[in-house]
Amino acid sequence: MAGFKDLIVYQKAFEISALVFRISKRFPKEETYSLTDQIRRSSRSVTAQIAEGYRKRRYPLSFIAKMVDADGENSETQVWLDHAIACEYLVEQDILPIRKLSEEVGKLLADMITDPGKYGAIERRKSP
Length: 128
Known about the structure:
69% of the residues lie in helices and 0% in strands.
């Protein structure tokens, strides 16, 4: 049986978190407990939200809520990347692969939110 790790969205989000980790090593030491911590947490949270939501797919509203949270964390990661550029820790070219993956993840999450049934989220009917 397939699990959350088999989802393309999970795999792409996991790749983002690995790329963010590597690139954030360039940030100055004074950013350790702020920008570095924030961007690593948000990028890792995307995969955690996907995993939690996938496990709750028998409850469509819970599934959708977790995918919405994952999408929010994905967007947050993009904001932190913008801050890293604004602070001149990175240049746009450094983050192009991350941005591309992030856009793909956003589109996949939007599909999961719009059509949860494709991902096994089944509306359970109440007994009359």
